Amino acid sequence: MSNKKGTLFVISGSSGTGKGTVLELLLKQSDKFCYSVSATTRAPREGEIEGLNYYFVSREQFEEFIKKGEMLEHAEYVENLYGTPKSYVLSQLEKGMNVILEIEVCGARQIKEKFPEAVLIFITPPSFAELEKRLLERKTESKEVIEQRLKIALTEIQSAKDYDYIILNNDNKAIDAAMDIISIAEGKYNKNTDPDYADKFISDFIKNNNIQ
Questions:
Q1: Most exposed among 79, 125, 154, 163, judged by the fewest C-beta atoms under 10 Å?
Q2: How is residue 75 annotated by DSSP?
Q3: Would you say 45 and 56 are in contact if contact means Cβ atoms under 8 Å apart?
């Protein structure tokens, strides 16, 4: 077995960007990645499986994990706690596996502070209208929660400039986004060296989608 340690990949993107689909395709395309299952205090959505999609725990359990130092990062989002259990991530990196963390912007910043070598990737939808459409089509949340998620999404998209890469997840082309991540891991994806690139991307996104 190679002594080379794996790379930690942080994947973020607003709720409804299709991150889950992209990562599912990524893991089918490459055996060099593994997915770190997060813990959350929110209730499972229809079809979600304990230990596969999330570890669903009570707020009391989650706070105990934090107290014991068992979380690599954690954040509160739409009144629920989310976090990354530490032991699995560290063990897989030692084995040479690339570990995928699917976490929010706040958690991504925590990871970058602890692991400066981590690669941060932000996935964005083609438009704000498409993001709203995807959230509505899930039919898992109330109108009020969706509106809250959309407000948070705008802030998150503006934080994309803090990430190493921005990947567009176009309609019905999640496989392209998955292959982009593989290309990044293989060093075949050109990192944006233009310091103004992210600002231009965010400005264009907001302008093109009539976001105030």
A1: 79
A2: E
A3: no
Model-level pTM greater than 0.90? no
For residue 136, give both structure tokens.
């509505």
Side chain identity, residue 202: I
- What residues does 131 pair with on adjacent strands? none
Structure tokens at 142: 């109330």
61: number of Cβ within 10 Å: 13
C-alpha 138/C-alpha 73 separation (Å) is 27
C-alpha angle 4-30-18 in degrees, rounded to nearest 5: 120
pLDDT by residue for the chain (212 residues), tens only, comes to: 456 899 999 999 888 888 989 999 999 999 999 999 999 999 998 899 999 889 999 999 999 999 999 999 998 988 899 999 999 999 999 999 999 999 888 889 989 998 999 999 999 887 777 778 888 887 777 888 888 888 888 888 888 888 999 888 887 789 999 999 999 999 887 666 565 666 777 777 767 666 65
Half-sphere CA count of 132, side-chain side, radius 13 A: 12
Amino acid symbol at 153 = A
